[in-house]
């Protein structure tokens, strides 16, 4: 018999992300797996320092995904500058996502966003839907 443990968030306070950052996120071309990993990291993020503590095995169990899929999601987030590993099981989210909070002074990568005109047709439709959702809530 196996058990699974996924850490609870350090607070139940909502995560607030400004509209301009949401628009930037819509321009970052990550897979569904990458976005699910990012969403879970945001959920687990510590509001004091913008870090999230979860192992990749725990993340795989939480998302119901394979470890290679989760690894790919983490790799995409690192490559586009949204999150990176500080140590095993501890991830720093980009300060734009955390209200400027970081664990300690460090070089912050630039977020790699795509130009919408370079999107594939499928990605262009997804971007248009994301922008329509932002407009509808504002």
Give an overview in words:
- The structure is a single chain.
- With 138 residues, the chain is mainly alpha-helical.
- It is 44% helix and 9% strand.
- A 3-stranded antiparallel sheet has the order 1-3-2.
- Strand 2 and strand 3 form a beta hairpin.
- Helix 1 packs antiparallel against helix 5, helix 2 crosses helix 4 and helix 3 crosses helix 4.
- The longest helix is centred in the C-terminal third of the chain and has 17 residues.
What is the secondary structure topology, with strand pairs?
Elements: H1 19-27, H2 32-44, E1 51-53, H3 56-63, H4 67-80, E2 83-87, E3 90-93, H5 121-137
Antiparallel strand pairs: 1-3, 2-3
Helix pairs in contact: 1-5, 2-4, 3-4
Task: Report the total helices.
Answer: 5
Q: Give unreliable regions as ranges.
A: none
Estimated share of beta-strand residues: 5-15%
Estimated structural class: mainly alpha
The main pleated sheet reads as:
3 strands, antiparallel
Summarize model confidence as the mean pLDDT: 87
SSE pattern? HHEHHEEH
The N- to C-terminal Cα distance equals 48 Å
What's this entry about, in short?
Helices cover 44% and strands 9% of the residues. The chain has helices at residues 19-27, 32-44, 56-63, 67-80, 121-137; strands at residues 51-53, 83-87, 90-93. Helix 1 packs antiparallel against helix 5 (121-137) and helix 3 (56-63) crosses helix 4 (67-80).
Keywords for this entry:
138 residues, mainly alpha, 3-stranded antiparallel sheet, 5 helices, 44% helix, 9% strand
């Amino acid at each position: 018999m196996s058990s699974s443990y996924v850490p609870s968030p350090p607070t139940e306070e909502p995560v607030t992300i400004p509209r301009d950052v949401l628009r930037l996120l819509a321009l970052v071309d990550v897979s569904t797996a990458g976005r699910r990993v990012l969403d879970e990291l945001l959920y687990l993020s510590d509001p004091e320092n913008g870090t999230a503590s979860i192992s990749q095995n725990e993340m795989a169990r939480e998302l119901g995904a394979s470890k290679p899929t989760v690894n790919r999601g983490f790799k995409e987030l690192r490559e586009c500058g949204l999150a990176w590993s500080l140590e095993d099981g501890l991830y720093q989210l980009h300060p734009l996502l955390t209200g400027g909070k970081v664990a300690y002074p460090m070089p912050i990568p630039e977020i790699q966003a795509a130009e919408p005109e370079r999107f594939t047709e499928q990605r262009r439709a997804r971007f248009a839907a994301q922008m329509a959702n932002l407009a509808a809530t504002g």
